[in-house]
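User: I'm preparing a small set of examples for a lab meeting where we compare how different chains pack in three dimensions. I only have the primary sequence for this one, and I'd like the structure in C-alpha cell form so I can line it up with the others. Please keep the answer compact; I'll paste it straight into my notes.
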Amino acid sequence: MAIAKAERLMNLALCLLGTRRPLSKRELRGSIEAYLEAASDDAFNRMFERDKDDLRELGLVIETVENLDGDTGYLARRDSNRLPPITLDAEEAAALGLAAKVWQQARLAGAASGALQKLRAAGMPETEDAYEVHSALEPRIPVHEAAFEPLMLACRDRRPVTFNYRKANAAQPEQRQVEPWTLECWRGHWYLAGWDRERGAERVFRLSRITGKVRSRAGAFTAQVPDVVTVRETVESWAGETATRTALIRLRADSGYPLRARALSVRELGDGWEELEIPYGHGLDAWLVEFGPDVVVTGPEDLRADVVDRLRAVAKD
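Assistant: Understood. Below is the C-alpha cell output for the 317-residue chain.
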C-alpha cells in the first residue's frame, strides 16, 4: 500500500512538472493509471485532493489556475520548484560518503548509493575515501531483525503497529499496540521507542524480542511525539546506558571485553576469575545474561535476582 501511494505521488508530480500548461482533473485522471482504476468520480476526487495536499507538504509548489472557460487546472512550474545550487566542501562530502557506507542492509545501501550519485551529478566534490583506501575497518550498522523494515516505515509514516513481544524474563510473548516514534541502535542492538497504548506510557522494545509479523493499523497517533533528543535519552536509559549506581560481578578471565571497557575497577580473584565494578543502570541484567556462564553477579541483590529470573526463562525453552 505504501509503495503504491508513493508511485502515485511520483506520477502526479512528474505530470505537474512536465507540463507547460495547467492540466485539469480530467486530464490528470486519464494520464495516471491509479486514477483510472478509481471506482468512482468521488473516489478519484478524494484521492487526488489527498495526493495534492501530500505533495504540497513535501514542498512541491502547485499552482491552481482557472482558464477562460472557468475550468481549474494545476501545474508545478520548474522555476518555483528548483532547489538552490548544492555547495559542499570536501569534509562535508566525505561525511556523506561515510554515512552512505554505514548501512549493511541491501535495500538501504541501494538508496544511499543512489542519493550519492544524484548529489555528485549536482556538483558534490569527489573525495578520496580514506576509510576504504587506508583502513581495514569499515563502519557498519547490522540489521538482522525482520521487524526492522516494517517498523522503519511505520515510524516514517506515523502509523500505529501491533506485534508480539517477549520480555527477557517471560516464557510467552504478549501482543503490544504501539505508536512507533523512532529506531535507535545501542551496543549493536536495535530498539524501538514509542507509546504503548495499553499501558498508556512510553516504552522501549528490543527488536530481537519481537516475534512474528509487525502489522500496521489505521488511525492517528494519540500521544504527542517527543523531540529526537528526548527519545534518544529514553532509549539510552532503557538500554542500560544511564547508570545510577554500581554493581559487582565476577568475570571469567579473557572474556567479556565489552564489560571490561566499562569497568570502574578490576581485581584478580584467582582460579581464572576477576571481580569488576561496573556502572549499573536499567537494562544491565539483560546485557549480563548475554555473557552466559562467564559472568556471575555478586551484588546488588536485586540485580542478581533479575539475572537469575532471565536465565530461568531461557532455560524453560
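A couple of notes for your slides: DSSP finds twelve helices and twelve strands in the chain. Residues 2-18 form the longest helix (17 residues).

User: Perfect, thanks.
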